[in-house]
Design goal:
The complex is a heterotrimer.
Chain A (H helix, E strand, L loop, with lengths): L1 H4 L5 H9 L17 H11 L1 H18 L1 H4 L36 H37 L1 H16 L2 H14 L4 H4 L5 H28 L2 H8 L4 H12 L1 H24 L13 H14 L2 H29 L8
Chain B lengths: L2 H7 L2 E12 L2 E13 L4 E5 L6 H8 L7 E9 L2 E2 L5 H7 L4 E4 L3 H4 L6 H12 L4 H14 L5 H4 L9 H12 L6 E5 L7 H18 L2 E6 L2 H7 L2 E6 L2 E7 H6 L4 H8 L37 H5 L5 E3 L2 E3 L4 H9 L1
Parallel strand pairs in B: 3-8, 3-9, 6-7, 7-8
Antiparallel strand pairs in B: 1-2, 1-4, 4-5, 9-10, 10-12, 11-12
Chain C lengths: L1 H30 L1 H8 L5 H11 L4 H18 L15 H35 L4 H14 L3 H15 L18 H35 L2 H8 L4 H23 L1 H14 L5 H11 L2 H29 L7
Helix pairs in contact in C: 1-13, 5-6, 5-8, 5-11, 5-12, 6-8, 7-8, 7-11, 8-10, 8-11, 9-10, 10-13, 11-12, 12-13
The chains are: A mainly alpha, B alpha/beta, C mainly alpha.
Chain lengths: 335, 331, 323
C-alpha cells in the first residue's frame, strides 16, 4: 500500500545507489535531523494517509459506540413507536429511525452502536488473548527448538490448512460438548466462549510469527552478547527478543481484532454465533438477522450493518498497514 | 594505419559516455564522460574500486540499466550507435556482436531452465537454426569452454554445477554467436583462487582462437596482469590513467594508480599501504580532481579544474601535477 | 519423483486414520449424536433409538469411541450402501453427498480457474510499472475488496442484482420445478456465486503475483536474459513470469482451505445445493451419519492438495529435490 501515497523506488535504483557506494542514510549536505525511533515511527504512521484517515474514522466510531447515552437515539430493546401509534416494524430509513427498523420495530442505528461495542470488545479481547498465548508459545518454541517446536509447527500446519469455517464450527461444538469446561469458558453461545474460541484459532498465526522472529534474532550479536554475560532465557526473551519483534506483533494484534470481528459476524450469519443476551447485541447478531430482510428486499437491514462491518474491516486493515510501514520500514507491504 | 581509421575499425568505442541515476536524494553521477576504443582481438582491462563507474559504463552500453538511468554520449559497437537506440537495434546487437558475462554465475543463470536451453535461447535469438541444430551447437560450445561430458551437462540445471563450471557455462553462452567483443564483469571475483586461473585461461584461449576482443572489468590487478594488453584506470566516474600493462606496473603515473599498486599484497613487500579515505559521494562529487581529498600530493591547483588526460611517458594521465611527480619519482 | 509420490501416498494412510479419528471424537463429543437424534425424532421409541445407536456404533466411554470408530470406518470403506442413514427421514447419505459434491465442484472449478488466472494476469500487468496508474488501481482495489468479508459481498450482490434489479436469480441452481439439464439457466444461476468466490480469489492472487514478479525483477538472471538480445516479451514470460509463478502455484495447493471456506458461505447465501449447504444443514441438525463422510472428504481434499502443492513446487523449481 506504500505505493498509494508514494511511487515505490524500484529495488534496482537502491541497488544502483548501493553499487555506487552511496550511503543513502547518511548523505553529507542533506539536512538529517536525528529522531528517536519512536518519533520516526510516529511520523511514518501519520504520513500513511490511509492509516491516518482510518484512525480518525475508527476513533469517531468507537466514541459513538462507547458513549451510547449520548449517541444512541433509543434504548437497545426500545421500539421507535408504540405499536398503538402505528406500524413500527420494517420501517425504511426516515427521520424517526435513520437506519430503519427491524422485525420488532427497534431502531437499527441505535442497535448498531450497541452491536459494534460488543463486537469490538470480542475482537480486542480475543486478539489480546491470542497475542499473549501466541507470543509465549512462539518465543518458547523458537528459543527451545527440538520436539516442542516440531509439534507446534505440525499442529498449526494442520489447523491452518483446514477450511477455517469448518474447523471453527467443529471446535466450537467440541468445546461446547466438554461439559467440565462450561463453568470456565461459558456456554456455546456466550460472549466469553466466542472470545476463547477465536483465541484458540488466533494464537497460531502469532506463534509462527514470533517463532520466526526469534529464530532470526537468535543468531544476532546482541543476543549472543546477552547470553555471554549470563542472562537467562526468560530474561533474553523479555528484554531483548520481544522489544525487537514488537512491530510485527502489534501488526498481528491489529489484524486479529478485525479477524475476530469478521469471524463473529460470519458465525452469527450461519447461526453459530453468540447470543448476546437480553440487554446486549452484537454486530454479527444484527447481520445474522438481516438474511431474511434481503430476500424481502428490505435493503436497510443488510446495507447498514454490513457497511459498518466493512468500514471497521477496512479501517483496521489500513491501520495494520500503517503500523507495518511505521514499525518495520524494510518490509515490503505489497505482499 | 591512421588514427581515424583505427577508430572506425574498433569493435567498441565509447565517446564522452555519461551515466547518472535519478534517486530520491538527487542525481547520482555514476559515469562522468569516459572514452574507450577496443580493437578487434584486443584485451583491455578496466580497473577501479567499486562505485568507480566501471560496470555501469558497460551496462549502459548494453541497455541493461534500470529506468531511472540517464545516458548520454556515444557507445558504438561495430559501428552501430547504441545510446538512444531502439529496442530492435539494441536486441540485434547485444548477444550477437557484444556479449557480457557477470560476476556471480549462480544468480546470473536462470535457476529453472536447463543450461542447454539457456544457451539455445541465446543462439536462436540471432541465428536461424532449428532447435536440434542449436542444441548440437550448445553442446559444442560447452565442450569449447572445457566442460566434460557436455551432452549430459547440457540437460542439467545451474544448481548442479560448481561455481567454476557455471562461469564456463556463462562464457559458452556469451560466445554462442561469435561476438566481436566480450565484456567480462569481474568474472572471477566470486570464485576460488584455483578456479580463477582456469577461467582466465579459458577467456584468454577464446580471445586467441576466436579473435574476440575482451574488456575485463576488475578491481584485481592480478587479473589485469594475467589477461590484459592495456589498461584504463577509473576513479569517480572518470578515466584517470590509460596505459599499457607493463608500464602500469613498472611506473604508474597517476597518484591513484600508484596507491592501488601499493595496496595489493606482493612478495617482498612487508607492509600494505592502503589509500586513505573512501571514494567520493557521487551525488555531490568534489570539484576539480575527484581524487584530491585522498591524494597526498594535492594542492590548490587540483581544486580548480578537472584534469584532462595528457600523455606522460608511455601513458595518458589525468593529473595536473603529473609532471613534477613523474620527475620526482624518477629521481 | 515417483518414489516421493508413492511414499507420500503411503504416508497419507496413517495421517488420514489419525485425523479422521480426531474428527470422529470431536463430532461425537461436540454434537452428541444420541441427543440430536432424539431432538430430530422426538417420538422415536426405545427400540428405534437402540437401532440407531447400533447402526452408528455409538458406544459410551473411551474404549467405546475406539470401537465405534473402527466399526464406522469398516462400514465407510465397504461402500455407500453400508453407510448409516441420515437421522432425519432416514434417507441415504451418499446420494445427497454426491449431488452436492458435483454442484460444488462445478462452482469451485469455474470460480477458481477464472479467479486465479485473472488474478495472476492482473498481478503481472500491475507489476510492469510499479507505482503506475494500473498498479495503484489494482493494488488499491485489491486492498479494499480484500477487506470485505465474502458474506457481505454475497449479500450485497444478491440484494443489488437479484432482488432489486431482478437481472439474475437470487438462489438455487435451477428454478423450482426445472427438470433436466439447461446450460443457459445454469449459467444464470451460477453467475452471482461464481463472482463472489472470484472476487476474493482475484484480490488475493493479484497482490501475490505482483509481489512475486517484483521479487524476481531485481534478479541477475533477468539482466542476463536482456543481454541476450531476446524480445522483452520473451524476457517477461520465459524468465520473470515463469520464475515468479513458482511460489504462487504452491500457494494454490495450500489455499484450498480458504477456497472451501468461501464456498460454504457463498452457497448458503445463494441457497446453492452444494457441500456448504449440506454441511451447515447437517451441522445445525447434528446429523452424525451425514457429517462424518463430509468431513472425511474435506480431510482427504486438504491432504491431497498439499501433496499436489509439493509436487507442483518440485516440478516448477528444479532446485527442490523431493526425497
Amino acid at each position: 500500500m506504500t505505493s498509494i501515497q508514494e511511487p515505490q523506488i524500484p529495488q534496482a535504483d537502491l541497488d544502483a545507489a548501493a553499487e555506487l557506494g552511496v550511503d543513502v542514510s547518511a548523505q553529507q549536505g542533506l539536512d538529517v535531523v536525528a529522531f528517536t525511533p519512536a518519533r520516526m515511527a510516529w511520523k511514518r504512521y501519520w504520513g500513511h494517509h490511509g492509516a491516518a484517515v482510518s484512525t480518525v474514522i475508527l476513533a469517531i466510531v468507537m466514541f459513538m459506540a462507547l458513549a451510547t447515552p449520548l449517541t444512541a437515539r433509543y434504548g437497545i430493546n426500545e421500539q421507535v413507536l408504540k405499536i398503538e401509534e402505528g406500524n413500527n416494524v420494517f420501517l425504511s430509513p426516515r427521520s424517526i429511525a435513520w437506519f430503519g427498523t427491524d422485525d420488532i420495530g427497534r431502531d437499527m442505528y441505535s442497535r448498531l452502536l450497541f452491536g459494534i461495542r460488543t463486537s469490538m470488545f470480542i475482537g480486542v479481547a480475543s486478539a489480546i488473548l491470542s497475542v499473549l498465548i501466541g507470543t509465549a508459545v512462539g518465543a518458547f518454541a523458537g528459543l527451545r527448538g527440538g520436539k516442542f517446536d516440531d509439534l507446534m509447527m505440525r499442529v498449526t500446519d494442520l489447523f491452518l490448512a483446514f477450511p477455517f469455517l469448518i474447523a471453527i464450527i467443529l471446535v466450537r461444538e467440541f468445546l461446547g460438548g466438554l461439559s467440565f469446561l462450561t463453568p470456565i469458558i461459558g456456554g456455546k453461545s456466550s460472549i466469553r466462549f466466542i472470545i476463547v474460541l477465536f483465541a484458540i484459532f488466533g494464537w497460531m498465526g502469532v506463534a509462527r510469527l514470533v517463532r520466526g522472529q526469534v529464530l532470526a534474532l537468535k543468531e544476532r550479536e546482541f543476543i549472543e552478547a546477552a547470553r555471554a554475560v549470563g542472562a537467562s532465557n526468560f530474561r533474553i526473551v523479555v528484554s531483548h527478543l520481544l522489544p525487537n519483534s514488537i512491530g510485527p506483533i502489534l501488526v498481528a494484534l491489529t489484524l486479529s481484532v478485525i479477524g475476530a470481528v469478521v469471524g463473529e459476524s460470519t458465525l452469527s450469519f450461519f447461526g453459530f454465533g453468540p447470543q448476546p443476551g437480553e440487554n446486549s447485541t452484537s454486530l454479527g447478531y444484527i447481520i445474522g438477522l438481516s438474511r431474511d430482510g434481503v430476500q424481502r428486499g428490505d435493503w436497510w437491514l443488510a446495507v447498514f450493518p454490513c457497511g459498518a462491518l466493512v468500514l471497521l474491516a477496512i479501517c483496521i486493515n489500513f491501520i495494520g498497514d500503517g503500523l507495518r510501514d511505521a514499525l518495520d520500514p524494510k518490509l515490503d507491504s505489497g505482499r | 594505419m591512421t588514427e581515424s581509421a583505427s577508430v572506425t575499425d574498433g569493435v567498441l568505442s565509447l565517446r564522452n559516455l555519461k551515466v547518472s541515476f535519478r534517486t530520491p536524494n538527487g542525481l547520482v553521477q555514476a559515469v562522468r564522460g569516459i572514452d574507450l576504443d577496443v580493437a578487434p582481438g584486443e584485451a583491455v582491462g578496466i580497473v577501479g574500486e567499486s562505485g568507480s563507474g566501471k560496470s555501469v559504463s558497460f551496462l549502459a552500453t548494453l541497455g541493461l540499466l534500470p529506468r531511472n538511468a540517464q545516458i548520454s554520449g556515444s557507445a558504438k559497437v561495430v559501428g552501430t550507435e547504441l545510446v538512444g537506440a531502439s529496442r530492435r537495434t539494441l536486441n540485434g546487437i547485444r548477444g550477437n556482436k557484444i556479449a557480457m558475462i557477470f560476476q556471480d554465475p549462480l544468480s546470473a543463470l536462470n535457476p529453472v531452465h536447463r543450461v542447454g536451453d539457456q544457451i539455445i535461447e541465446m543462439i536462436q535469438a540471432h541465428q536461424s537454426l532449428t532447435k536440434l541444430a542449436a542444441a548440437a551447437r550448445a553442446v559444442e560450445l560447452l565442450d569449447i569452454v572445457g566442460i566434460p561430458q557436455p551432452d549430459q551437462r547440457a540437460r542439467q540445471y545451474p544448481h548442479e554445477f560448481s561455481g567454476g563450471m557455471r562461469q564456463r557455462v556463462m562464457i559458452a553462452m556469451a560466445i554462442a554467436n561469435d561476438p566481436d567483443v566480450l565484456i567480462a564483469d569481474e568474472p572471477t571475483t566470486a570464485l576460488d583462487v584455483t578456479v580463477q586461473a582456469q577461467i582466465l585461461e579459458v577467456l584468454d584461449r577464446i580471445r586467441r582462437e576466436m579473435q574476440t576482443a575482451i574488456v575485463m572489468i576488475t578491481h584485481d590487478l592480478g587479473v589485469i596482469a594475467r589477461v590484459a594488453d592495456r589498461v584504463q584506470v577509473m576513479y569517480a566516474g572518470r578515466v584517470v590513467e590509460r596505459t599499457g600493462v607493463t608500464s602500469l606496473f613498472a611506473h604508474p603515473t597517476h597518484p591513484y594508480t600508484e596507491g592501488l599498486l601499493h595496496s595489493i599484497p606482493r612478495h617482498g613487500l612487508d607492509r600494505l599501504v592502503p589509500i586513505p579515505g573512501s571514494p567520493p559521494n557521487m551525488l555531490r562529487p568534489p570539484s576539480g580532481c575527484a581524487f584530491r581529498p585522498r591524494c597526498s600530493h594535492a594542492d590548490e591547483r587540483c581544486e580548480r579544474d578537472v584534469p584532462e588526460l595528457k600523455p606522460m611517458g608511455d601513458a595518458m594521465t589525468a593529473c595536473v601535477r603529473v609532471n613534477e611527480l613523474y620527475v620526482a619519482s624518477k629521481q | 519423483m515417483a518414489r516421493f509420490i508413492i511414499r507420500r501416498l503411503l504416508w497419507m494412510v496413517p495421517t488420514l486414520l489419525v485425523v479422521t479419528f480426531l474428527v470422529y471424537v470431536a463430532v461425537r463429543i461436540g454434537w452428541n449424536p444420541v441427543a440430536s437424534y432424539q431432538r430430530a425424532n422426538p417420538r422415536a421409541g426405545k427400540k428405534r433409538l437402540e437401532a440407531y445407536r447400533q447402526a452408528n456404533g455409538l458406544y459410551p466411554g473411551p474404549s467405546g469411541y475406539v470401537r465405534g470408530y473402527g466399526e464406522w470406518l469398516w462400514k465407510f470403506v465397504r461402500g455407500p450402501s453400508h453407510w448409516p442413514r441420515s437421522i432425519k427421514g432416514g434417507g441415504e447419505v451418499w446420494e445427497p453427498l454426491r449431488y452436492s459434491f458435483f454442484n460444488t465442484l462445478r462452482l469451485a472449478g469455474i470460480a477458481a480457474v477464472l479467479g486465479i488466472s485473472l488474478g495472476i494476469g492482473l498481478g503481472i500487468l500491475a507489476s510492469r510499472r510499479p507505482g503506475g496508474w494500473l498498479d495503484i488501481t489494482v493494488n488499491t482495489t485489491a486492498f479494499f475488496v480484500g477487506g470485505v468479508p465474502p458474506f457481505v459481498s454475497a449479500v450485497m450482490l444478491q440484494l443489488t442484482f437479484a432482488v432489486s434489479l431482478g437481472w439474475l436469480p437470487p438462489a438455487g441452481v435451477y428454478p423450482p420445478g426445472q427438470r433436466g439439464f439447461d446450460l443457459f439457466l445454469m449459467i444464470k444461476h451460477l453467475t452471482l456465486p461464481v463472482i463472489v468466490v472470484m472476487i476474493q480469489t482475484i484480490a488475493g492472487y493479484s497482490r501475490y503475483m505482483r509481489a512475486s514478479v517484483l521479487d524476481v525483477a531485481s534478479s541477475d538472471f533477468l539482466r542476463t536474459a536482456r543481454s541476450k538480445g531476446i524480445s522483452e516479451r520473451r524476457v517477461l514470460f520465459r524468465h520473470s513470469v515463469r520464475n515468479a509463478l513458482v511460489p504462487v502455484v504452491t500457494v494454490i495447493g495450500i489455499d484450498i482451505g480458504s477456497l472451501i471456506g468461501g464456498l460454504i458461505i457463498t452457497e448458503n447465501i445463494f441457497n446453492y445445493p452444494g457441500m456448504g449447504v449440506y454441511f451447515v444443514d447437517a451441522a445445525l441438525l447434528g446429523d452424525f451419519p451425514k457429517l462424518l463422510p463430509f468431513l472425511v472428504i474435506i480431510v482427504v481434499f486438504v491432504i491431497v492438495f498439499n501433496l499436489l502443492a509439493d509436487i507442483a513446487y518440485a516440478f516448477l523449481d528444479p532446485r527442490i529435490r523431493l526425497d
